[in-house]
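Dear Dr. H.,

I hope your travels went smoothly. While you were away I took the liberty of generating a structure for the chain from your last submission, since the lab meeting agenda had it listed for discussion. I wanted you to have the full record in hand beforehand rather than looking at slides cold. The sequence, exactly as received, is reproduced here:
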Amino acid sequence: MRAQAWLGGIALLAACGGSAGGEGESSSLSQTRVPVGVATVVRDTIRDELVLTGRLGPKPGGSALLAAPAAGVVSSVTAQVGARVRRGDQLLVLDVPELASEARQKEAAAAQAQREADRQARLLNDGVTSQRAAEEAAATARQAASAAEASTALLARTQVRAPLTGRVQSVRAQRGERVEAGAPLVEVIDVDTLDLHVAVPAGRLAGVHAGQPVSVVQEGDTEPHPAKIWAVAPGVDSLTNAGEVVVRVPNPGGQLLAGAGATARILIGVEPQALLVPDSAVVLAGDSSAVFVLGRDSIVHQRVVVPGVHQGGRVAVRGPLTPGERVVTTGAFGLQNGMRVVPR
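The corresponding predicted structure, in token form, is as follows:
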């Protein structure tokens, strides 16, 4: 009987010891005091806005680099860097005597061939020559005329003229300088309208479409310029997982500069009455996102949320939150559900 009582006492003591250990572990978790920063959950309107950077440049067909049609000497330069020019304005003249001589020779040959074709046509009417001879003479005249026109057109290109209305970007030759065929002479760009190329992440392309309004700010400036999305690429780059979007920017005052960096703001949508918390309040919880809500007893409770639109250091979240509740913003990493904290 004494032995049984002794064994029962040991079992009771063991049970009491195990229970005390579990309560001690839970108590130590709640007694841990972690200093944290907190912020209040608010309900407000947030704008879903893409902010992208790119580089301004002329639109397709909006720039031209004019080259020498043949080797020659620059006889005059009328273009000046920055000057506004209209299509057809003379920019530079090349002196190429060989082209002038060749053009005169081919014009004379074309005139002679045409006279022979006319003579053969008269002889054909008189029955003196054959149909074949008349046709061959006419074909020769046409070929000579084409060669003369091509030679005259090439000679005309020695008077370098602006192919579009715009401004002179660069002048690469001086009066009296000898240049070779194909040497760059003058560059003209259309600055009244520029394109901004930006890369949009694949996950956001669905909210972007042609005609969408955009606000563009040039690097180093603060003035926004209204623009519109002109084109959206149908695919994405396999390396960056982003698609190219072309933003067309009217630039009548010439304030924007081709080649300069710029930022585009594209408004995707507006989410009214969203639950907003600071970006720093959202932490990873396994495969999900979560926030730690501070209770009145200074114990934090983890709640899983789904983050949405980010703007100005705040993020819209969906989940079991209520406006006015406080969430941990600094010191959230490493927290566990049920920990006691000290709000700073």
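Two observations you may find useful: The chain is about 25% helix and 45% strand. The longest helix spans residues 2-31.

With kind regards,
E. W.
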